[in-house]
Design brief:
Length: about 260
Amino acid sequence: MLKNYLKIAIRNLWKHKTFTLTNILGLAVAFGATLLLSLTAFHELSFDQFHTHKNTIHQLYREVHRPNTIENATAFPMPLTPALKTEIPDIVHATTFTEAKKLLSGDGLPFDVTILDLTLPDKNGRQLITEMLEDNAQCPIIILTGYANIEFIIESIGQGVYDYLLKDELASSALYKSILYTIERKKNSTDLLRSEKRYSDLFNLSPQPMWLYDPKTLRFIQVNKAAIEKYGYSEAEFLAIAGFSEDLHDSPPAHTIALPQ
């Protein structure tokens, strides 16, 4: 009997092709929309779920009423944080730029990377990046934000930010790779600076007179302390000399280094 029912259903569907096609397409669109909505809801509900105390984390918003619209913002006056802690005893910790600055200040930083959100209660945007780079020069910064303006991204990288990640496009593997890359890049930069300092010290602290010069113009580029003491010229006077072969022809030989052509 079930076989007969199936035959009748197929015959009716085949007989009314337009009606059948319309229903199938409508059902497919409905299933697709349901799937997309479900994925979006899952993404929103899973946001920040990695925190240990995720149920106690909150973010403050304020409404800015303008003539034609109402805007939501997360920036607040600096005194708000201590006031909240005082008036609401349930608050055990509030994050602000001021607290981060105190935590990151000083020598011997215990952090390898700073992951920075561009919207903090007491500071945001360009000003936040500038002050973080000034106060936290020893620790590389990765920006993690939802602001996807390409010009701002290029400007931030140019200022010295190591990486710029977008929250909407972020995956755990991408964040992991970014952190490893940033740590390794910072390590290589530090090693390079140390190497340059060692070679600079070999030149500047050598007891023998040494200088760098341009082989085309024979003008001095740099002289070490021993050369200044030996010949009695200041560094500025050395750099003003037209050519060392004429002005120092009666001086004893010294170590010279010609810059590459």
